[in-house]
Structure formats: C-alpha cells, structure tokens
C-alpha cells in the first residue's frame, strides 16, 4: 500500500517514513539550512576582511602633512628687461599656477637670487653691466634668446658663462616655442567652417631687406600672384590689428626673416593660424614644421618647383573650396596657443629653476649648439 501521493513522491525520497508526511519536504529543509549557513559564513568572512583592511592602513604621524608638499620658493632676477619692456612683472601663481616663484628686476636681490636671466640682445650691448660681484654658490645664470642665429652676434664670447639655455630651440634647457597646438578635450566633433574671405593672399612685413631670402622669393612670386602687403612701408593694418586684417584672407605668407632649425615664429602661430588663414611658409624644411603641427595644416614654398607653380596651386585651392577646407581640418582637434612675451617666459624659467636647484652644469659650447 502506497503511503505517499504521487506529488509527495516527487518532493521526498521514497525512504522517507509516513510520519513525516504532514511536515515540509525534507529536501527543501536541507537546502534552506545550507543556504543560510553559506550566507552566514560569507558575511563573517566579509566582516573579517573589512576589519583587517582597516587595521593595515598606515596611521599618519601628527606632524606629517597629508597634502602635497610645497615646491621650494625660488627667486628669479631679470638682469635686463628684454627690449626695454615696460610691462609689469608677472604674478606666476596667479597667471600660470606656478607656486613659490618670485620674479624681480631689482638688482639688489642678486646676492640671494636662485637664478639670473639675461636676454641676449641687451647682454651684447651692455656687456659692461654684468655683475661685478662673485656669483653666489649654486646660483644659475640663464641665457635667453628668441632671435635666430643670423641675428645673434658674439655667441662665441658666451661659452662657459651660463648654466641653462632658454630659447625656441628643441633641446633648450627651458624650451618655449613661439606657439604650439593644444589638443581639444572633446575633439573631432566640431565642423570646419571657412569664413567668406574677400582677399586671396596677405603678407605683413615691417623689416624689409633686399638681401633677405623672403624678399627675393616675393619678387619671383609677384608676376604670377597678387599679394596684399601690410606693414610699416605698405598698407596700414585694419584697426592696427594683424589678426583682424589677415582674417579677411584665405592665405598668409608666413615667411621667416632667416632659415634656421626650429625658428618658427609668430608669423605662423599668430599672424596665420590664429587669424584663420592657411599659412604658406618659408623657413626651415617641411620636416621641421611637422614637428610642431600636422602636415596638412600648412603649405611649404619649397614643395613646388618654383613661385609660378606655388601661385598656380593657391589659385587652384581658391577655386575648389573642398580642397581648401582640407587645410583647415586640424582645427577640429586642436587650438592654437601663442606664447605670451615676456610674462610666460619668466614664469617658465622660474619653474625650471625650482626643478633644477641641485643640477650643476655649465654650457661650455653655447655658440656651437645654437648655430648648428
């Protein structure tokens, strides 16, 4: 005689006795007890691990600061203000988040200055004004120059005189180019918009010299291409603004006054790129420009057989807006930063001094390095 119904048989093993027929099925009881035990063990393990992790944390000493340690304060003495600049000296912390930097032009600070910065132009003119007192121990002398070697005389007299170099040259101890591109935080999602330009090619030049390569190139270009020239001896700038003037043109002749490695000045960064014009460059080779900006952000004059071929290409781009816009695509990903003379330079130098207080070296062959 069967003691369990078919339903009860499916819930409990056949060996279960009839007296349990009114209670919970035995498999469910065992499973519930097992789950409860497993949960309790898991919870206990988590509590133990949490307590152990708290015990293993280091306890800071009462006199140990928990915030980031302060950078050692540094004093930078400007021995000559570049080109007699009357601009106020910068507050490096306020303007460039450079803490602990004191910039002064008071020569009475010489004895305790961590570094003295000397601008090349004033140095070669006012040689007799160099400090007569012995150089304080560990004080750094910084040679600063942003002119090309063609306009930097008497370099050979400076060998063994300075501890740090500051210039536009890659490889300087304090490297600060005339400008650079900054990648956008959200890049690639902004359409390239080309404003309606009324002119084709503009050029702003104040230092005209018949011996300059850029002037000679212009004379060869002139028969094939009309260029609107602005500057001291030419058209006046619109509202005395280079950017406002050039922004009315598609192309800008970013011709350097001399051709040297890394010598790529504001003629490219501010006059052309900030203004929205495509730069036509003449200076160091293309590969040097490509160290600083994309290959399709500029047109190099030396990429063509001659001025006539260059003129034909610019006219071709003028007639084909889609091709012209290719030279503006980089703007989706980058913004242009133009270095601020001279505040940014002084604060960059002060920060570099803070990081090299314990570095002891002398630039023994400055002329050879800068002119190479």
TrEMBL record:
Which GO cellular component terms, listed alphabetically, does the Swiss-Prot or TrEMBL entry include?
Golgi cisterna membrane; Golgi membrane
Tell me its EC number(s), please.
2.4.1.-
GO BP, one annotated term: inflammatory response
**Sorted alphabetically, which keywords does the UniProt record give?**
Glycoprotein, Glycosyltransferase, Golgi apparatus, Inflammatory response, Membrane, Signal-anchor, Transferase, Transmembrane, Transmembrane helix
**Compartment(s):** Golgi apparatus membrane; Golgi apparatus, Golgi stack membrane
**SUPFAM superfamilies, alphabetized:** UDP-Glycosyltransferase/glycogen phosphorylase (SSF53756)
Domain Fucosyltransferase N-terminal span(s) in chain numbering:
72-179
The protein's annotated catalytic reaction(s) are: an N-acetyl-alpha-neuraminyl-(2->3)-beta-D-galactosyl-(1->4)-N-acetyl-beta-D-glucosaminyl derivative + GDP-beta-L-fucose = an alpha-Neu5Ac-(2->3)-beta-D-Gal-(1->4)-[alpha-L-Fuc-(1->3)]-beta-D-GlcNAc derivative + GDP + H(+); an alpha-Neu5Ac-(2->3)-beta-D-Gal-(1->4)-beta-D-GlcNAc6S derivative + GDP-beta-L-fucose = an alpha-Neu5Ac-(2->3)-beta-D-Gal-(1->4)-[alpha-L-Fuc-(1->3)]-beta-D-GlcNAc6S derivative + GDP + H(+); an alpha-Neu5Ac-(2->3)-beta-D-Gal-(1->4)-beta-D-GlcNAc-(1->3)-beta-D-Gal-(1->4)-beta-D-GlcNAc derivative + GDP-beta-L-fucose = an alpha-Neu5Ac-(2->3)-beta-D-Gal-(1->4)-beta-D-GlcNAc-(1->3)-beta-D-Gal-(1->4)-[alpha-L-Fuc-(1->3)]-beta-D-GlcNAc derivative + GDP + H(+); a beta-D-galactosyl-(1->4)-N-acetyl-beta-D-glucosaminyl derivative + GDP-beta-L-fucose = a beta-D-galactosyl-(1->4)-[alpha-L-fucosyl-(1->3)]-N-acetyl-beta-D-glucosaminyl derivative + GDP + H(+)
Q: How does it sit in the membrane?
A: Single-pass type II membrane protein
Q: Which InterPro entries match?
A: Glyco_tran_10_C (IPR055270), Glyco_tran_10_N (IPR031481), Glyco_trans_10 (IPR001503), GT10-like_C_sf (IPR038577)
Any transmembrane segments, and where? 37-59
Tell me which family the UniProt entry assigns to this protein.
Answer: Belongs to the glycosyltransferase 10 family.
Q: What role does it play?
A: Catalyzes alpha(1->3) linkage of fucosyl moiety transferred from GDP-beta-L-fucose to N-acetyl glucosamine (GlcNAc) within type 2 lactosamine (LacNAc, Gal-beta(1->4)GlcNAc) glycan attached to N- or O-linked glycoproteins. Robustly fucosylates nonsialylated distal LacNAc unit of the polylactosamine chain to form Lewis X antigen (CD15), a glycan determinant known to mediate important cellular functions in development and immunity.
Record protein name field: Fucosyltransferase
Q: Which species is this record about?
A: Ictalurus punctatus
Q: Which gene is this protein's source?
A: LOC108280630
